TrEMBL record:
Residues 214-306 form the CobW C-terminal domain. It catalyses: GTP + H2O = GDP + phosphate + H(+). It comes from Bradyrhizobium yuanmingense. Zinc chaperone that directly transfers zinc cofactor to target proteins, thereby activating them. Zinc is transferred from the CXCC motif in the GTPase domain to the zinc binding site in target proteins in a process requiring GTP hydrolysis. It comes from the Bacteria. This is G3E family GTPase. The keyword Heme does not apply. Belongs to the SIMIBI class G3E GTPase family. ZNG1 subfamily. Keywords: Chaperone, Hydrolase, Nucleotide-binding.
Length: 309
């Protein structure tokens, strides 16, 4: 029997990793393999996935709808040769990926014999301005979806969920829309019992030219950072950022990893796991529109955060 695939898409900072984390943490004995694609050279998302070990495969420094297309197919082939095979495979795309192109890749006859795309889930920040759904990439992410999960409802404010549902309907999106409080989505929606392999392969249109719209810049340091200086640096960079995320140690709390997230103008910090052996003590990925942020400017701003800088 073919292994079902769940494709998780959504724009930068929508909350995809939170959804995947919740699914893995509530696997109820199922063997779930996760393929995590990050746009930057450092795959922060793979480190944040619960139980990131042999079950999580990292694809970094590119997008699986274009430059990493071959890597995705090779990764799936490797996962399907495992003994025992995974019960299901979750693919988390980068926020800049066009899922229509990924669906086309998953129709590869070699993969299709052993694994079948079961569900496309689009995670959407409920606080996203409705006008943003007119963006071509976000439209593609929504229109290929079977399920749209509204995330960050606790941050979006009263009525945001209702407004977003109305905006999705205005786009004539046929998907089922559900609330995803803290990343929770009923597994029965994602993997309907007995549904795998019962449907015909999905129809896909012609491949569209790739549009280079975003770039990812990484900054690492083997030294801890000053938290007040880092906060000042992020405030300075924020107007130019589409997304940022990272792991770091602070001068104020040495030996403790902090998780940094910046999306939709909001920055958050949370305690992380123990430092990863051999990894830089500070590693942050910044994603911006092409030409908005230079590496020289980023390095200048961030070097001021380093202890002694």
């Amino acid at each position: 029997m073919a292994v079902p695939i769940l494709l998780v898409t959504g724009f930068l900072g929508a909350g995809k990793t939170t959804v995947v984390n919740h699914l893995l943490a509530h696997a109820e004995g199922q063997r779930i393999a996760a393929v995590v694609n990050d746009f930057g050279a450092i795959n922060i998302d793979a480190e944040l996935i619960a139980g990131a070990s042999d079950g999580v495969v990292s694809l970094a420094n590119g997008c699986i709808c274009c430059s990493l297309e071959g890597d995705l197919l090779r990764t799936l082939s490797t996962l399907l040769r495992r003994d025992p095979k995974p019960d299901c495979i979750v693919i988390e795309t980068s926020g800049v990926a066009d899922p229509a192109d990924i669906v086309r890749n998953l129709m590869d006859p070699v993969i299709l014999r052993e694994a079948q795309l079961e569900t496309v889930l689009c995670v959407l920040d409920a606080g996203t301005p409705p006008s943003a759904l007119d963006d071509a990439l976000m439209r593609s992410q929504l229109r290929v979806a079977d399920i749209v999960a509204l995330s960050k409802l606790d941050l979006a404010g009263a009525g945001a969920g209702v407004r977003m549902r109305e905006a999705i309907r205005a786009q004539r999106v046929p998907a089922v829309v559900v609330d995803a409080h803290h990343g929770e989505i009923p597994p029965a929606l994602l993997f309907p019992a007995g549904a795998c392999c019962s449907s015909a392969p999905r129809e896909v249109g012609p491949k569209r030219p790739a549009e280079e719209r975003f770039e990812a810049l990484s900054w690492t340091s083997d030294k801890p950072v000053s938290l007040p200086r880092l906060q000042q640096a992020i405030s300075r960079l924020a107007p130019k950022l589409a997304r940022a995320k990272g792991l770091f140690e602070t001068l104020e709390q040495p030996g403790r990893t902090m998780v940094f997230q910046f999306a939709a103008g909001r920055a958050t910090l949370a305690p992380g796991d123990a430092p990863t052996p051999g990894a830089a003590r500070t590693r942050i990925v910044f994603i911006a529109e092409l030409g908005m942020l230079s590496k020289a400017e980023l390095d200048e701003v961030m070097e001021a955060c380093v202890a002694g800088g």
